[in-house]
Specification:
mainly beta, 3-stranded antiparallel beta sheet, 1 helix, 5 strands
């Protein structure tokens, strides 16, 4: 969901501008659906991909369409050739995923 806030009027509440489901990857053949946020670290040797969506950027094109950049929070936390949480070896190779949505 994308919300806006009118800073000129402190009494106005946040307004939902757009809402769209993030399940569009479930049947696109990529086998990399967006996952829900979790407090459990998923960066183990056998589980390096756990795409977790984070709205990273919002732009508008000349026609007024909203372009929403979605990045992978887990991929950013994991890194490439990084130290794992359980060892001192640099053997954690995360994968960063992302999308660009047009609304």
């Amino acid at each position: 969901m994308i919300y806006s806030l009118d800073l000129r009027d402190k009494d106005k509440p946040w307004v939902e501008e757009i809402s769209f489901p993030l399940n569009y990857r479930n049947n696109d053949g990529s086998d990399r659906p967006w996952n829900i946020w979790t407090t459990e670290y998923k960066g183990t040797y056998y589980h390096r991909e756990y795409p977790t969506p984070l709205i990273a950027d919002i732009e508008f094109d000349n026609a007024g369409n909203m372009l929403i950049g979605i990045m992978d929070l887990h991929g950013s936390q994991n890194g490439y050739y990084n130290y794992t949480l359980s060892t001192t070896a640099k053997d954690d190779f995360g994968t960063l995923l992302g999308d660009l949505a047009s609304c």
